[in-house]
Design a protein that fits this description.
The protein has 324 residues and is of the alpha+beta class. 56% of the residues lie in helices and 13% in strands.
Length: 324
């Protein structure tokens, strides 16, 4: 059974999510056969150990049926990862490849140097203190290197991303490269539905307020005196507002007003509004030349994932896999 290492030792496995998840587990496991992969057994304890950090997070966020469903989903994904990993290791051995012992020795020496200040005794004592053998550690490192080598051999995008595809991605995801469009505004709202006042008198009041603003009255002061919405005590301050926050007629005016300007009266839903735009930012797209390399990298990664899935699918199709 894979056991927990100290935090310092866990840091070693940043390149190996499978190993990292397994070693980070707590000892709450119910053992049994979860899957058979060409005669090799994957146990429930391995699945639980791999998925434990994810489960712990889910338990802190969810409860009830939703928690049960998410844990089941996480365990199924973990089992799939373990099956794929076992298939890769088997393919490595079938093709007759070897990881020389001195490669593994070098990896361990790097761990000792980087995580234990070069002190081998401290490294060994850390393993012993956690009831973890050096042999188990070497096996995990060896299998990690096997998986890494096979991925490097078999997961290679077949083509270079053509410029036209990059241009197309940029055009289709233009919003992803555009900074968030926001306005900083204040607003005065006068209700037109007061039972003791006519709509005409309310509009007349709004026109009087607008006249005072045009002649130099402070907007925040007018809002504190007259506004009837929840921002009254804040002088009508709405702060920074994103698109799709305000009702469409208010948004259209707010995002088209120049900074420092005050709107005309806006009638909406029987109420009357006056808006002042204090500042604006965003809405600026990064040019294609600036993001071309990022897009190319993303498309290459997506292609690599497709190639990897085709490769793993071929391994699965040739294998005997039974889950329980």
């Amino acid at each position: 059974m894979i056991r927990t290492l100290s935090i310092a030792l866990l840091a070693v496995f940043t390149l190996s999510p499978l190993c990292r998840g397994a070693l980070a587990a707590e000892h709450e496991v119910v053992d049994g056969i979860a899957a058979i992969v060409n005669g090799d057994v994957i146990t429930y304890s391995q699945v639980r150990e791999l998925v434990e950090p994810r489960e712990r997070l889910l338990r802190s966020q969810l409860q009830g049926d939703e928690l049960v469903a998410k844990i089941k989903e996480a365990r199924m994904a973990a089992l799939k990862d373990l099956i794929d990993r076992q298939l890769i290791i088997q393919a490595f051995n079938k093709e007759g490849y070897q990881i020389p012992d001195h490669f593994i020795d070098q990896e361990i020496n790097d761990v000792i140097r980087d995580s234990f200040g070069g002190d081998r005794n401290t490294f060994i004592k850390t393993l012993q203190a956690q009831n973890f053998s050096l042999g188990e550690f070497r096996k995990i490192e060896k299998e990690r290197m096997m998986v890494q080598a096979m991925r490097a051999k078999n997961v290679k995008p077949s083509t270079v991303v053509p410029p036209a595809k990059i241009n197309q991605y940029y055009a289709e995801h233009h919003d992803d490269f555009t900074s968030k469009d926001q306005v900083k505004l204040r607003m005065i709202m006068i209700s037109g539905s007061e039972t003791d006042r006519s709509s005409g008198s309310q509009k007349a009041l709004t026109e009087e307020i607008l006249s005072k603003l045009v002649h130099g009255a402070e907007f925040d002061r007018m809002a504190q005196i007259y506004s009837e919405d929840s921002t009254r005590d804040l002088g009508g301050d709405w702060g920074w507002v994103d698109r799709k926050t305000l009702a469409a007629p208010l948004e259209k005016v707010a995002f088209n007003l120049p900074v420092g300007s005050i709107s005309n009266i806006i009638e909406l839903g029987g109420n009357y509004y006056i808006i002042k735009v204090e500042d604006k930012h965003g809405g600026v797209a990064r040019p294609l030349a600036e993001v071309r390399a990022d897009i190319q990298k993303k498309l290459e990664q997506e292609e690599a994932q497709r190639v990897q899935e085709r490769w793993l699918t071929s391994l699965r199709q040739k294998a005997y896999i039974k889950t329980f």
